[in-house]
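Case study.
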Amino acid sequence: MDRPKLSFFRMSKLSGDFIFKGVVGLFALGIIVLAFLLFREPFIESQLSRNAFGFGFLTGSTWDPVNEVFGALPFIFGTLVSSFLALLIAVPFSLGIAIFLSELAPEKLRTPLSFIIELLAAVPSVIIGLWGIFILAPFLRDYLAPPLSTYLGFLPLFQGPMYGLSMLTGSVILAIMVIPITSSVSREVIMTVPTQQREAALALGATGWETTRIAVLPYARSGIFGAVILGFGRAVGETMAVTMVIGNSSHISASLFSPSDTMASVIANQFLETAGSKLYISSLIEVGFLLLVVSVIINIGARILVWKFLKVERGAA
Amino acid sequence: MKWNKRKLIDRIMSFLTAACVVIAIIPLLSILYTVTLNGISAINIDFLTQLPKPVGEAGGGLGNAIQGTFIVVGIACLIGLPVGILSGVYLSEYGENKFGRMVSFVADVLTGTPSIVAGIFGYTFIVLYFGFSAIAGGVAISVLMIPIVARTTEESLKLVPGSLREASLALGIPRWKTILHIVLSTAMSGIITGALLAIARVSGETAPLLLTAFGNPFWAVGIDKPISTLPAQIFTYAISPFPDWHTKAWGGALILIILILILNIGVRLITRRKYRV
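After joint prediction, the assembly is written out as follows.
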């Protein structure tokens, strides 16, 4: 008499597990679907622009909404230059921060200081942009640009007048926003370096810095490189703060003092000003699609580097 | 004392790396200082409760933008939290296979999605069919939220000791009940922390909202209509040529930064206390 009841109980137990796994699995599948849609929708909506300009869209340097000629080169240029410059400024600082907070600082200071550095990443982009317009841009115009043009003015990089909103300001803002992520990931990577590495160097009589230089940094190299690439991805995708301080000009200029635009900033700045022109909107969406592809490639590269490093270290420990 | 070149270099490098930390903190302090200083003069009861006034008219406030931010972030939570948390459950509890690792990797990569791309997604996926609306804004923002919530949920569930699961399973409790009643409730504080940090992170998002929520000078009339939000309003005021609007931008920034810092610092204080005990 008990038997059918028992088997029913077993069945319901089984199907309960089955249903639960199915439901959460469906949501997990949702993430894959989301990634797919993230690519598919902009790709479809940029068809008009892709048909009109083909690959010339990547190399065309004219962005002329009046005559409906669109080439994205000025923005690709702007994104690359501003991001590279941002890394140039941010990487030494991030490394210094990561080394200090994981190796050289007194124990008590490490956690609160890393928290403060990471707090910068929590400040919304639009507020950093607001600060950039009214504080940073005038500061750079008055205190950084004059000496640069006096002493390095023979370089094309530092020629022409600087009105505040410029490629230089955009790059500095990006550097400020890249530092929290690059330094915190580098720090995480450095902290996974095995203690024996350090002890071996210290046992040979190395000082704290020498230990870092000969035993820790070479060991963590690939992970730190991943952290830098992750920062590059952040710089490439950053939108609001850059839009607000880069000056918004679709002309390519060698001077860092001139206004410019990045792929992200041109979309934020012009998307609502297309006056219903289908080709214009489609071109902006294509810029967005390119931005997505570029940042996904950068992110995949960085994640693989960091993941591999952390996995090997944690697996070994 | 004997002059020692190596010790000297050690001191210099300690000093230089410490200087990096100090210099990196300066922008944060400057931002907090200027936002507080400029924002405090803008804030009063009217500023928090009134509708914005046209250029040239004194007074007015950001009441509708504050309301709109809560509505849009609320919609994003309704979509993002269930999807994020449940897929996090899958990744932690059933994810030890090819599909699980793929989802985990995709979620990781998606955390790097440029915010403007989320805006374009919201525009092409919703706005083109239903027009600018609070829903479109919520969807665009949930795109940024889902991968963060999924990963933090996964991480905090993985911290739950396997022995707890085994003890429950040994009592004959099915796996799904074990997960719902034992694993999830043990990891609840971690999941809530992750969710709150994700909410803090997306509350300040502006770029997606420009392309989806559009803005609206009046009180919200429905979630299928354009809606004003605090970050977008700060942007509009900041890039305007009017000094009065600049003051309002600082005021809005102060409100936004207070909301976000409270979420951030509060969450970290709570979790730190928890780990210490």
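Observations recorded in class. Residues 236 and 249 of chain B are 8 Å apart (CA to CA). Chain B touches chain A through 91 residues (CB under 8 Å). We will return to this complex in the next lecture.
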